[in-house]
C-alpha cells in the first residue's frame, strides 16, 4: 500500500470476486462494478433525487429502529448518514450513471454502501468493515430497489413540481402586468400570418396569461397523481421480506421526514409495476412546453425586424447577436425557451415509451424515465424563471409602429362588415388599393365615415368589448 492516502486502497469482495476500492471512497464494490459497466452518458442523479433517496432510506431506518428490528446504535448512525446525504454532504459519492441496467439496483446499492460506510465512520470504524454496519443487512432492511427507487423519484418530482408551480405563477403575473400596460395599444391581429382585425396588444398578452394560468392549475393538480407510493412493497408489491408493521408505518415516516403529502398506495403491486402516473405528469409538462413554445414563437414574430419585420414589441437587449453584423440583437431568450420546450416534448415521448415497455411485475426502464422526467422539470423551472425575469418583464411596445400598421392595414374594413356588408367592403378595399389610399383614407374619401368615427371604432375600449352593439356602428353609412 502506498504512503499517500490517494493511492491507498481497500479490498472488497462479492459473489463475483474481489476488487480494490479507493481507500477514502464511501461507495463499495457493487457501486464500482456498476460504474465500470455503465460508462454511458456522464449524467449523474439529480440533486433532489439524491436528497429524496436519502430521505427514503432515512424513513426506512427510522421505522426499523422504532419497531425494534434494527439495533438503536446502528440505526441512529444510519439515520445520521442519511441526513448527511440529504443535506448535500457526500453527494459526490453517488456516482452511478443515469443510464443503467437493473431497474435502478446499482443506484440503490450506491446509496446502501455510502450510507453504511458513513455510519461505520460515525461509529469510529474503518470504511469497508461491514461487520459493523452492512449495506444490505442494515441499510437495506425490509427494502427492495423496486420500492425505494420509484418512491424516491416521486419525492423528487413532488418537490420540483412545487417549485415549477411557483415559477409559473410568477410568469403568469408578469404577463398579466403586460396585459394592463398594453391595454391602450391598438395593433393588427393576424391569422395565418396575414392581417385580420384590429385588437390591442394587451389582449395578446392576456391570452398568453390565460394559457399559462391553465398550466399552473395542471401542475398543481398533477401533484395529486404521484403522492401514493409503493414503499414497503419490496420486490413486486407483495411486501415479501418485510414485516407487516413496518409496511403499515414506513410511508408515514417518509411523510414526516419530507413534509410531503405522501401515503401508501392501496395496491402496492399496481404501484410497483405501472408507471402511468409519471406519464400523466409528463403530459402536463408537455402541455406547458407547448404553450411556452407558442408564446416564444409569437414574441419572435412580433419583435421581428425590427425595421423590416413586424416590430410591434421590443424585447430586452441581452447580448450581441452576431460576430460579423455589428449592432444586431437576436431574440435569444425566446429561442432558448423554444429549445427547452422541444426537449421536454421529446422527453415526454421517451417517458411514454419507457412506461409502456414495462413487463409483468416491474418496469426495468425506470432509470431512463426518471432521468427524462427530472430533466424536463429542471429545464422548465430554469427556463420559466429566466424567461420571466430576462424577457417578459422587460418587453416594451413600439406604439407608433403599431399605429402605422393599423392605419396601413385593411384590417379596419372587417370591423365594418356588419353594417356595410361583405361585398361592399370588398369594393372599398379594391378602391383603396387602386388609389393607393389606406382604408381610413378611403372611408373618409367616400364620405362613409368621419375621422372621429373611425377613431371611436378603433378605440381600445371599443375593441376590448365582446362583439359589437348595433347602435355603436349606426352612424356609418
How would you explain this protein's 3D organization?
The protein is mainly α. It folds into three domains: 5-141, Fumarase C, Chain B, domain 1; 147-230 and 266-398, Fumarase C, Chain A, domain 2, CATH 1.20.200; 410-473, Fumarase/aspartase (C-terminal domain) (Ribonucleotide Reductase Protein R1, domain 1, Orthogonal Bundle). 58% of the residues lie in helices and 7% in strands. Helix 16 (422-435) crosses helix 17 (439-445). The longest helix is centred in the middle third of the chain and has 37 residues, at 145-181.
In short:
Helix content is 58%, strand content 7%. The chain has 477 residues and is mostly helical. The strands form four sheets. It has a two-stranded antiparallel sheet. A two-stranded antiparallel ribbon has the order 3-4.
Write the layout of secondary structure elements.
Blueprint: E1 9-14, E2 17-22, H1 29-37, H2 47-66, H3 72-86, H4 105-122, H5 135-139, H6 145-181, E3 186-191, E4 194-200, H7 201-225, E5 228-229, H8 244-258, E6 263-264, H9 268-273, H10 276-302, E7 313-314, H11 332-356, H12 366-390, E8 396-397, H13 399-408, H14 411-415, H15 417-420, H16 422-435, H17 439-445, H18 451-457, H19 460-463
Parallel strand pairs: 5-6
Antiparallel strand pairs: 1-2, 3-4, 7-8
Number of helices: 19
Helix-strand category: mainly alpha
CATH topology of the largest domain: Fumarase C, Chain A, domain 2
Using the alpha-carbon principal axes, give the shape: elongated
Number of strands: 8
Q: Top keywords for this entry?
A:
477 residues; 7% strand; Ribonucleotide Reductase Protein R1, domain 1; 3 domains; Fumarase C, Chain A, domain 2; two-stranded antiparallel sheet; Fumarase C, Chain B, domain 1; elongated; 58% helix; mainly alpha; 19 helices
Amino acid at each position: 500500500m502506498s504512503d499517500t492516502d490517494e493511492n491507498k486502497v481497500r479490498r472488497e469482495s462479492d459473489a463475483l470476486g474481489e476488487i480494490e476500492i479507493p481507500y477514502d471512497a464511501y461507495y463499495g464494490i457493487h457501486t464500482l462494478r456498476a460504474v465500470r459497466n455503465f460508462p454511458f452518458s456522464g449524467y449523474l442523479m439529480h440533486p433532489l433525487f439524491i436528497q429524496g433517496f436519502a430521505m427514503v432510506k432515512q424513513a426506512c431506518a427510522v421505522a426499523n429502529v422504532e419497531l425494534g428490528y434494527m439495533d438503536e446504535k446502528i440505526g441512529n448512525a444510519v439515520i445520521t448518514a442519511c441526513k448527511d446525504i440529504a443535506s448535500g454532504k457526500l453527494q459526490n459519492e453517488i456516482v452511478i450513471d443515469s443510464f443503467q441496467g437493473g431497474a435502478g439496483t446499482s443506484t440503490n446499492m450506491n446509496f446502501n454502501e455510502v450510507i453504511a460506510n458513513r455510519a461505520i465512520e460515525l461509529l469510529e470504524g474503518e470504511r469497508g468493515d461491514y461487520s459493523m454496519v452492512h449495506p444490505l443487512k442494515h441499510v437495506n432492511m425490509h427494502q427492495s430497489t423496486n420500492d425505494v427507487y420509484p418512491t424516491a423519484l416521486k419525492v423528487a418530482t413532488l418537490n420540483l413540481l412545487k417549485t415549477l408551480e411557483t415559477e409559473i405563477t410568477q410568469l403568469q403575473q408578469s404577463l398579466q402586468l403586460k396585459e394592463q400596460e398594453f391595454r391602450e395599444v391598438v395593433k393588427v391581429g393576424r391569422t395565418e400570418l396575414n392581417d385580420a382585425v384590429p385588437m390591442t396588444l394587451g389582449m395578446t398578452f392576456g391570452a398568453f396569461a390565460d394559457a399559462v394560468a391553465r398550466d399552473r392549475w395542471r401542475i398543481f393538480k398533477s401533484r395529486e397523481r404521484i403522492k401514493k407510493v409503493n414503499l414497503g412493497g419490496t420486490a413486486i408489491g407483495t411486501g415479501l421480506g418485510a414485516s407487516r408493521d413496518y409496511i403499515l408505518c414506513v410511508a408515514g415516516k417518509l411523510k414526516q421526514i419530507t413534509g410531503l403529502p405522501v401515503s401508501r398506495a392501496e395496491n402496492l403491486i399496481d404501484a410497483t409495476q405501472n408507471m402511468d402516473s409519471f406519464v400523466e405528469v409528463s403530459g402536463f409538462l408537455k402541455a406547458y412546453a407547448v404553450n411556452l413554445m407558442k408564446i416564444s414563437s409569437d414574441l419572435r414574430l412580433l419583435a421581428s425586424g425590427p425595421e423590416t419585420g413586424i416590430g410591434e414589441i421590443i424585447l430586452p437587449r441581452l447580448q450581441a447577436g452576431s460576430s460579423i453584423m455589428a449592432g444586431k440583437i437576436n431574440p435569444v431568450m425566446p429561442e432558448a425557451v423554444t429549445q427547452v420546450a422541444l426537449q421536454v416534448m421529446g422527453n415526454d415521448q421517451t417517458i411514454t415509451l419507457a412506461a409502456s415497455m414495462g413487463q409483468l411485475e416491474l418496469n426495468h426502464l425506470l432509470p431512463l424515465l426518471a432521468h427524462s422526467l427530472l430533466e424536463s422539470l429542471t429545464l422548465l423551472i430554469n427556463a420559466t424563471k429566466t424567461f420571466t425575469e430576462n424577457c417578459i418583464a422587460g418587453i416594451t411596445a413600439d406604439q407608433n409602429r403599431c399605429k402605422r400598421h393599423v392605419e396601413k392595414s385593411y384590417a379596419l374594413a372587417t370591423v365594418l362588415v356588419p353594417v356595410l356588408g361583405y361585398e361592399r367592403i370588398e369594393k372599398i378595399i379594391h378602391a383603396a388599393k387602386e388609389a393607393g389610399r389606406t382604408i381610413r383614407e378611403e372611408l373618409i374619401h367616400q364620405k362613409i365615415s368621419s375621422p372621429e368615427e373611425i377613431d371611436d371604432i378603433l378605440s381600445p375600449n371599443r375593441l376590448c368589448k365582446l362583439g359589437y352593439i348595433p347602435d355603436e356602428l349606426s352612424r356609418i353609412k
